[in-house]
Amino acid sequence: MDDLFADHDASLGRSEVLAEGARVLRGRAHARAAEFLELIDGVSAQAPFRNMTTPGGYPMSVDMSCCGRLGWVSDERGYRYSVTDPQTGRAWPAMPELLRGFAIACAAEAGFPDFSPDACLINRYRPGAKLSLHQDRDEPDLSAPIVSVSLGLPATFLFGGLRRSDPQQRVGLVHGDVVVWGGPARLRFHAVLPVREGEHPLTGRYRINLTFRKASRT
Ligand code: MD3
Ligand code: FE
């Protein structure tokens, strides 16, 4: 049995379809979470967490880092993917193979068999941090899905429609949950409500979310 899914029995059948193209794989990252967090520590030792600035000039409340060939960057000039970390002037740390393989397996399970991520954005939320309503549309190949892994403190995720004003469904995401969204759900608006105060045995006062993306055309 594929040991990337060592907790398969515990999470068997706990897959929810949020909309066509969007699925939550409950608990799928639970068994490997401690290893994943070690790998994230390694990445952030080379590419430290930082509060990026929005194009409007405001600091984001979420601390971010990246790994993979490309990293997501925001500043007064706008949003884009870059092969260098503007803070260090160096390439982003490599995407750890264990993480990349896990994301590919989750995408395949959700119906996207050819996922080849080259960017992983690491979002770190302290209590009070949030992500406002947005679409992920900086990637040139929108046929590729995005895979999200939630670790640490829980959060409430808002899942909207293709227009900013569309109604939103609330989805609770806890430690170990994975969300895969692509196809007709790829451009849906979404947000994360302010993370509530709490303490998690593996992350302390943080929620960590990984998003695996294909950020280049080829
Ligand atoms: C999108 N991150 O980094 S990912 C982002 O939890 C981002 O840090 C969030 O949005 C985070 O751009 C959310 C989870 C997610 C789940 C379901 C979705 C995003 C989705 C459904 C449709 C569109
Ligand atoms: Fe997003």
Automatic annotation (TrEMBL):
EC numbers: 1.14.11.33
Cofactors, names only: Fe(2+)
Residue ranges annotated for the Fe2OG dioxygenase domain, each copy included: 116-216
Record-level Gene Ontology MF annotations: broad specificity oxidative DNA demethylase activity
Keywords: Dioxygenase, Iron, Metal-binding, Oxidoreductase
Coiled-coil boundaries: none
Annotated Gene3D superfamilies: Alpha-ketoglutarate-dependent dioxygenase AlkB-like
UniProt cross-references to Pfam families, sorted A to Z: 2OG-FeII_Oxy_2
EC class of the enzyme, as a word: oxidoreductase
PANTHER family (UniProt xref): ALKYLATED DNA REPAIR PROTEIN ALKB-RELATED, NUCLEIC ACID DIOXYGENASE ALKBH1
Protein name according to UniProt: DNA oxidative demethylase AlkB
Organism: Uliginosibacterium paludis
